[in-house]
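FORM 7B: Structural annotation worksheet

SECTION A. Query
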Amino acid sequence: MTIPKDPVMLLSFINTQLRDFYPDLEELCSSLSLEQRELEEKLAQIDYHYDEKKNQFV
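SECTION B. Predicted structure
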């Protein structure tokens, strides 16, 4: 699966995946073969950070 490169599109894609298919970020990254640290850093560039309780980037 190809994920969006644009950070805003990536945010939307990741939050939708988390909401619909994955119980947490770790499982999403494992399933999609993504580096969790890199994903978090990319979204931090647009000031979004993972909230474990909400299971979303906010």
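SECTION C. Observations
Helices lie at 7-20, 25-32, 36-44. The longest strand covers residues 50-51.

SECTION D. Sign-off
Analyst initials: ____
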